[in-house]
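Progress against Task 2.4 (sequence-to-structure conversion) is shown through the following example record, which the project officer requested during the mid-term review.
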Amino acid sequence: MGPSAIAGTAYFGVTQLEYLLSNAGFLVALSIIPLALAPLSENYGRRPVFLSSLAAYTATFVPVALVKNYPAWAVLRTLSGAAASVANSMAAGSVTDLYVASERGSAMNTFALAIFAGQVSI
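Structure tokens generated for the chain above:
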């Protein structure tokens, strides 16, 4: 467990498992919500979905930092993960919207490289 998790368990007075469940809630929302948001972007366009997601993420980000009790924090973290999921589900579609079909291959290769190279830490 990292230093932030140790500090979080002490701050909220919960066990390590309870604290890590909030991360699980964030990740589950991050992985499931795109199933609902991807069709919305096809029906209403990417911009309204991106902007509403940004508003929702911003609305949950500040309370996550200020909340004092664990149950509210865990729920807000889950909602934050749901709002943050838009970037994962629609980024590739946004890249394809920017380029014509003949240039799209190199743009998508660069996008995919950025995903994998971005995870390398020195």
